[in-house]
Amino acid sequence: MEKEELWHTVLAKLELDISRPNFLTWFQETGIMHLEDGVATISVPNIFVKEWLQNKYHKVILHTLRAITPDVKDLVYNIGKLDDAAGFPFIRHHGAPRKKMFSPQFIEDALAIKDLAVNPITNLNPRYTFDSFIVGSFNELAHAAAQSVIKNPGLAYNPFFIYGGVGLGKTHLMQAVGNEILRYSPSAKIRYVPSERYMGEIVEALKTQQMNKLKDKYREVDLLVVDDIQFIARTEKMQEEFFHTFNTLYERNKQIIISSDRPPHAISTLEERLRSRFEGGMIADIGLPDFETRLLILKTKIDVKKADVPEEVLRYLAEKIKNNIRELEGALNRVIIESKVSNAPITVDTAKKSVLSHLAAPKKFISAKKIIKAVAEFYDMDERELLRRSRKKDVVRPRQIAMYLMREELKSSYPSIGDKFGGRDHTTAIHSCEKVAKDLLANPEFEEEIRAIRDKVFAK
């Protein structure tokens, strides 16, 4: 397999498991420069991408490469341009595709990925539009608020705060607002940024003494869209910098859109001054889509992909995958790709094999220790605090949640749960689990909080 085809295969697999914005942000302009003596040299455009791939995606890239060609033993990253079209499809030269022989399907897939190219000025993905955003009962409030923001940016709902679980469409909706405003006002200054990248830019600006330049970059926009704001709450410096940026934009009636995996009051380490500002605007949640909405999402996707997938297969996928739109689309992609590779028609049986093999893949091991660690991180506290016999409210509540998750996720007995928390009596564990279960029924926002903690557990 040639380098370009190998890397294309790697990218196709990575795209299924990495969010679209992150995939486009970190894997554009990458490729295989050399493959010698079991070492693959990956070309990257700059030091920031190099460090990010090394620190965050090294293992998954290496694992994916090894699954395709076991001869690969290690990876190195090199800043520079590729000498051939071995990189992120399509590498262009002087405005035109290089003349190199590829299969028709490779070219079709490459052009499809190229169309997803992020606008380098706004960081918006042009494919995130309202035309491709499916509205249902699970997101209709957020959608309606977004439409109001478009009609009257900076004045209708400012800030506009969207929260919900992983893979439910927050990023799509936020960027759709930006793209729509840009469509009506091409001169509007818009910038989308994931909070982790924003934090990285702050760190880099501090190192290079370029903070004033960075401040201008984010404070001279008409619309600022920040994804996953909960990460900023981890450090005081990041919160302080964002606080001043927020105030500058707000005072100028510039629109701010923010997303999180939980509502502001559930971000335990968020400073009160930021929390009050977030809660001063419009807060809308995005929940889980129902069956009919999931089916409509799949039908919309195959129209875009121009794929021939039988109705019964779509219904099977919609029934089987309920909690994550991104995972739903990933399952559809796998079914389509496997059909092309095997040159076989798509049937319910082949879809079942694809989905079941994915579900049967080794899952990350979940333990009581991981649950305690995730809960402690979520509430920004020391793990040891959960295990002590403290009756402080800010300790009791997280401890009850940790006990509840051990019961729900591990099916642990009440006595064993009590033992994990300093030898407490099993009645304490029973009370904790019942208290959390009761609160979940009474408070929908608390359900979002639990879901966010679950996501952290399974991400470990």
Structural notes for this entry:
With 460 residues, the chain is α/β, with parallel strands linked by helices. The protein has helices at 3-17, 20-27, 47-68, 104-114, 140-151, 170-184, 195-208, 211-219, 236-251, 272-279, 291-305, 311-320, 325-342, 348-359, 368-378, 383-387, 393-410, 414-420, 426-442, 444-459; strands at 31-36, 39-44, 74-79, 92-93, 96-97, 160-164, 190-194, 223-227, 255-260, 282-286. Strands 7-8-9-6-10 form a five-stranded parallel beta sheet, sandwiched between helices. A three-stranded mixed beta sheet has the order 1-2-3. A hairpin with a 2-residue loop joins strand 4 and strand 5. Helix 12 (311-320) runs parallel beside helix 14 and helix 15 (368-378) runs antiparallel to helix 17. Residues 84-116 have low confidence and may be disordered.
Q: Please tally the helical runs, counting DSSP H or I stretches of 4 or more residues.
A: 20
Classify the helix fraction into a percent range: 55-70%
Largest sheet: 5 strands, parallel
Number of strands: 10
How large is the share of residues in beta strands?
Answer: 5-15%
Distance between the termini: 34 Å
Poorly predicted regions? 84-116
Q: Strand order across the biggest sheet?
A: 7-8-9-6-10
